[in-house]
Design goal:
607 residues, alpha+beta, six-stranded antiparallel sheet, two-stranded antiparallel sheet, 22 helices, elongated, Tfc3-like, DNA binding
């Protein structure tokens, strides 16, 4: 009856008086106005009776009915290990490697079933497109094909005006397209087998088995919300326009009536959200041309570049190609010269920019999760770069088993191992071409400098030893006899100058210096002896008075005086210690003790 247009249906959720929500499916006649339908839905939750729990008498004794049946041996999945294995640091390394090892030591079937509890893994297993912009592109391109291939579909309102009802995507699209647009939450082996065959991929959603139809949540709030989320993005970039019914004499557009659908529409102007399925638009028009804005340059006010036709499938593909460039290639967008005026983006600008500017939104390749990569790393030797691809048979059987365990395509697993081995080879080649590290060069330079310094030290020690030997030869030649203290002191001063000179060119100079020092020492010794003899020859006579010494009587006139010789030479003062050395020999300075301060009370007591 719904396909013939006799009735219409939709699903929604109402809140019961007790608090929880309940999903209901409402059927109504096409003649019912939207206002009456909204009022009915609003009053539906209030009018439902509150269920009363019946009073049941409990029996304390355990009652056994019939023969005892053994409970089936249910396999428990290690979801706790998976939860800990997911945790990773900022570099992507697992924070609980012991949980990862314990999980991957189980049987392959247990590992596969555990990984299939990950939403990203199970959804991509069924063909889900992870990039949001690419999902919107797939929805747009498939709808254009449907206008050509399914013009008689009940949910296509007008092929000429390109108007479609939202229920089309819950009935007349193939299973593969539905799984690509809406992610699945749980693994279903029946769904996996259908997607492996071409016939199953082309099966329309409305023809699915009831249990699979229910597991995919077809037509329910979650599915409707995911589809409206894509339509919101398409509206933001100007590809689609939301419509609403109108009775105006001058509507926005008018089409040929078909299957009880309205024929007059205006642009939907009310505020709506993908999460609200009741107030959201149900009719959508796919435009024949769409604008392109430079989204990578500005998020708040992107500049208008050009309008492109999107009537045919080929024109739409060219449009999406240019749109992708200006969204993720900033250099390309900056090189474009834009016209001074142009239309602004429609819809929620913030939501559109957030979705379309991300590179991940345009990613078409399979996205391996971290836990899948941890499993692949178990078959990659980090030290040797060995992978199953380097086995003798190419690792075909191993690769198929790995792909089955992690539920990833075989091509994705093969490419991952190929890239890992290529990175290892590149790292080894770069290490061989790379010059020695700066630290090694610095260490080598420091060692070379230390060796040179050691050679200089040894050379200086050898030169000083040779200089000492030359000094001993010089002194032995000029003064072979032992020296007294006075002579040694004079010679020692010259020795210090000789050792510090560092040259052996002018030995005659040092011979003259040593000879002069020896002569001065000899002269000083002779002067000392003469002086001591004169003091010894002087006679002191006692005076007649006690305590007074009388002077010697002068010689008489007839007494001859001895001849007076030349004055003795002036003796050079022997070198001694300097004033600073004498002060240093006295030891540290003794500080005087400070006088103790007498307290005021002691002074008063003394007074």
């Amino acid at each position: 009856m719904e396909e013939r247009g006799k009735i219409k249906t939709f699903q929604t959720a109402i809140r019961l008086p007790t608090g929880p929500q309940k999903h209901v499916r409402i059927m109504y006649l096409p003649t019912i106005a939207k206002e009456q339908l909204d009022t009915y839905v609003a009053e539906l939750g209030r009018g439902l009776p509150t269920p009363q729990q019946p009073v049941v008498k409990r029996v304390e004794e355990e009652i056994k009915y019939g023969r005892e049946l053994a409970e089936p041996n249910r396999r428990t999945l290690p979801l706790d290990l998976l939860q800990r294995a997911r945790l990773a640091d900022y570099q992507g390394n697992p924070t609980h490697p012991e949980a990862v090892d314990e999980l991957f030591q189980r049987e392959d079937q247990d590992i596969r079933d555990t990984l299939l509890t990950e939403r990203s893994i199970v959804s991509q297993l069924h063909g889900f497109i992870s990039g949001k912009a690419l999902r919107a592109r797939e929805l747009h391109l498939y709808t254009l094909r449907s206008f050509e291939e399914q013009p008689n579909s009940f949910h296509i309102v007008s092929v000429e005006e390109r108007i479609i009802h939202l229920s089309f995507y819950s009935n007349d699209i193939p299973l593969a397209v539905f799984c690509a647009l809406v992610s699945t939450l749980t693994h279903d082996e029946q769904l996996t087998q259908l997607l492996l065959s071409e016939e199953g991929r082309r099966m329309l959603v409305k023809n699915l088995p009831l249990d699979l139809y229910s597991n995919l949540s077809v037509g329910r709030t979650r599915t409707r919300s995911r589809l409206l989320d894509l339509f919101e993005l398409l509206q933001g970039i100007g590809v689609v326009t939301p419509l609403q019914l109108t009775e105006s004499a001058t509507p926005f557009l008018r089409c040929t009536p078909k299957n009880e659908h309205p024929s007059a529409f205006d642009v939907f102007t009310e505020t709506w959200s993908p999460q609200s399925s009741i107030n959201s638009p149900a009719y959508w028009r796919f435009n024949t041309e769409a604008p392109i804005h430079l989204w990578s340059i500005s998020e708040d006010s992107p500049a208008f570049w050009k309008n492109m036709p999107i009537r045919t499938l080929e024109e739409a593909m060219a449009y999406w190609e240019d749109l992708c460039k200006v969204c993720i290639d900033r250099e390309f967008a900056a090189s474009i010269t834009c016209p001074p005026t142009g239309m602004r983006p429609q819809g929620s600008l913030e939501a559109t920019a957030r979705s379309i500017r991300r590179k991940s939104s345009w990613k078409s390749s399979y996205d391996l999760s971290p836990i899948q990569q941890h499993y692949l790393n178990r078959f990659f030797n980090q030290s040797t770069g060995q992978t199953p691809l380097q086995d003798q048979d190419g690792g075909a059987a191993t690769l198929e088993r790995i792909a089955w365990v992690i539920s990833a395509p075989l091509t994705v697993v093969t490419e991952w191992f190929r890239e890992s081995h290529a990175r290892y080879v590149h790292r080894i080649e770069r290490a061989e071409r790379k010059p020695r590290p700066k630290k090694a060069a610095k260490a080598e330079k420091a060692a070379r400098r230390a060796a040179e310094e050691q050679q200089l030290v040894e050379k200086a020690a050898n030169a000083r030893a040779q200089r000492e030997q030359d000094w001993q030869s010089l002194v032995q030649r000029l003064h072979p006899d032992p020296m007294d203290d006075m002579t040694a002191a004079r010679i020692g001063r010259i020795r210090n100058l000789f050792m510090d000179s560092g040259t052996r060119a002018d030995n005659k100079k040092w011979e003259r210096e040593v000879s002069r020092a020896l002569q001065d020492a000899k002269t000083a010794e002779e002067t000392r002896l003469v002086t001591s003899q004169k003091k010894a020859s002087t006679v002191v006579r006692p005076s007649s008075r006690p305590g007074v010494l009388s002077k010697a009587a002068p010689p008489s006139k007839g007494t001859a005086l001895p001849a007076r010789g030349p004055p003795p030479p002036v003796a050079a003062i022997a070198p001694g210690k300097s004033v600073a050395e004498l002060i240093a020999d006295q030891g540290p300075v003794r500080h005087q003790k400070k006088a103790k301060k007498r307290s005021k009370k002691a002074k008063e007591g003394k007074l």
